[in-house]
Design a protein that fits this description.
five-stranded mixed sheet, 7 helices, globular, Rossmann fold, 534 residues, alpha/beta
């Protein structure tokens, strides 16, 4: 193709052509016919085209590589630059650079990899499992390769095939079946496919990278609920695989813990939601443990919308503790003798007004969770704590101001006075002046005198999240101090919204465990109120 610049200019209606705003009547007015009932005016939608601009960049040094519709949104070259792949009107089109008339429509179930910045920039990437999973077993993303700062599509050596990867999710059966990643070769001309990799049902095998343009050899990771993730070398068309890494389980207390997942029902309206419980590996029925609920509420307009968010859950995932940063795994609570409880806390309401029900749903959901874990024999109702980070911290303090059930709480980098976020937060799009009652009802600072239990607050001094200014924690602590409530506040210098250093990790865990041991496990010995800057 040679040197040059590739641009994506848009081409609008011809000069002097009428636009929708110039029609008689405008939006909601008379039709596009003239006032005298003449012929309807047809407005040309803007079109887009990919243009190669070659040196010396004169007015006539351009070549149109592709001309498409107004929804032309992205374009990537093959590694050898012989083929251009464009995303146009929901489909991917392959265009031969040497002969732009030779093009192949790869269909609407094929996507280009995300490039971060749209056309021409940003990180590349393939299509993996998890949240990207879909029930369509043919929908996937073209495999790509990163070269320098650019992303290129993998094209076979003969130029006739590409490959794509995807993950088919089990949908509503997610709690019994895991997502299954796959890789296909796709012929450009016929769109015929050959499956190269298909994850088994009892193991999560995820595609990592191709080692050649033909995807004849490639890397995958393999894991299951009891098998630690490792990288394997696979050969297309063969079941043989060679293990390349031998990772070490740095958190056997977590990976060997007893896991329980079940639904609970909210008594008032019969709403169901899911709860995950992790128990120490030596737990025996009849042994009621101190419990810690760690949570992060989310908003939904219906129960079906909530349930759909569970469809990509990977039940074959190994409960790994990251070796590079073990302290980032909140499941480490089980190593200290606690039942670790992670409930979904769905907040329901009409679109744009879900938070009108926030405090009601929060309390009712947590009541249902407490009843379920106590009735199951996992925990002692009189030895319960809870905690969360950011919006989870905000919800922790709300819960402690609405319910007397918790002996202690941990709240980090949260916002506790919603008047300090007057123009929206989380999914709330109304401003304070439009929904004042809801903002005030969701501000636990205004109920600080009702907070039951001992509250440990922590906040990063350099928190750049506009919705969680450090002042929120210092003001709440001042209120608790004035009310004589058992509370502590720790401020972490040089840290952002989530701590990133090993030293801060260790400091947090030391304080968390000591706090819960005193106030939850040991029955609530109250320490003096204090503020410390480490």
């Amino acid at each position: 193709m040679g040197p040059g610049l590739v641009a994506l200019p848009t081409r609008g209606p011809p000069a002097g052509a009428p636009t929708p705003s110039s029609r008689n009547g405008g939006e909601g007015g008379p039709s596009a016919r003239g006032a005298a009932g003449g012929t309807a005016i047809r407005v040309q939608a803007p079109r887009a085209q990919l243009v190669l601009w070659r040196p010396p960049f004169g007015a006539n040094d351009t070549t149109v590589l592709y001309q498409g519709g107004p929804q032309l949104s992205n374009a990537l070259y093959s590694v050898d630059s012989t083929t251009l792949f464009v995303s146009d009107s929901g489909a991917v089109i392959a265009v031969r650079v040497g002969n732009p008339a030779e093009r192949y429509n790869l269909g609407r179930n094929v996507r280009l990899p995300a490039t971060g910045g749209g056309f021409g920039g940003g990180p590349g990437g393939g299509f993996g499992g998890g949240a990207n999973a879909t029930s369509d077993s043919t929908a996937g993303t073209l495999l790509s390769r990163r070269v320098g700062n650019a992303t290129y599509i993998l094209l076979s050596g003969d130029g006739k095939q590409v490959a794509l990867s995807g993950t088919r999710a089990p949908g509503a059966n997610w709690h019994q079946q895991a997502p299954r990643p796959w890789v296909d070769r796709l012929e450009l001309a016929s769109r015929n496919r050959t499956r190269v990799m298909d994850s088994p049902s009892d193991m999560f095998e995820d595609f990592v990278a191709a080692l050649d343009r033909d995807v004849s050899r490639f890397l995958v990771t393999r894991e299951s609920r009891t098998v630690l993730p490792d990288v394997w070398l696979r050969t297309a068309g063969s079941s043989d695989a060679k293990q390349l890494t031998r990772n070490i389980d740095v958190g056997p207390e977590v990976s060997g813990a007893l896991s329980r997942r079940f639904q609970v029902t909210r008594p008032r309206d019969g709403t169901k939601f899911w709860v995950d419980v992790l128990l120490p590996r030596d737990w025996k029925p009849g042994n009621r443990l101190p419990g810690i609920i760690w949570f992060y509420p989310r908003e939904f307009t219906s129960a079906s919308d909530y349930e759909r968010t569970k469809w990509s859950t990977n039940i074959n995932a190994f409960p790994v503790v990251p070796s590079a940063r073990p302290a980032s795994s909140m499941q480490m609570w089980v190593s200290q003798g606690y039942a670790f409880i992670q409930p979904d806390i769905p907040i329901y309401g009409d679109a744009g007004r879900m938070n009108d029900n926030y405090t009601r749903d929060l309390k009712e959901n947590l009541d249902a969770v407490l009843d379920a874990v106590v009735d199951s024999g996992f925990v002692d109702r009189d030895r319960m704590g809870l905690g969360g980070h950011s919006y989870g911290a905000f919800s922790t303090v709300n819960a402690m101001s609405l319910m007397p059930n918790f002996k202690a709480g941990i709240a980090g980098d949260g916002m506790y006075n919603r008047t300090l976020t007057p123009f929206g937060f989380q999914s709330e799009r109304r401003n304070f002046f439009q929904a004042q009652a809801t903002y005030l009802d969701m501000s636990p600072f205004l109920r600080a005198d009702k907070i039951a239990g001992a509250l440990l607050l922590y906040h990063a001094w350099e928190d750049q999240n506009q919705g969680t200014a450090p002042m929120s924690s210092t003001r709440l602590f001042a209120a608790l101090q004035g009310l004589g409530k058992p509370a502590s506040l720790y401020m972490y210098p040089y840290e952002d919204h989530s701590v990133a250093t090993y030293a801060s990790d260790l400091d947090l865990w030391a304080r968390w465990v000591a706090w819960m041991d005193v106030h939850v496990k040991q029955g609530g010995k109250v320490e003096p109120v204090r503020a410390v800057v480490p």
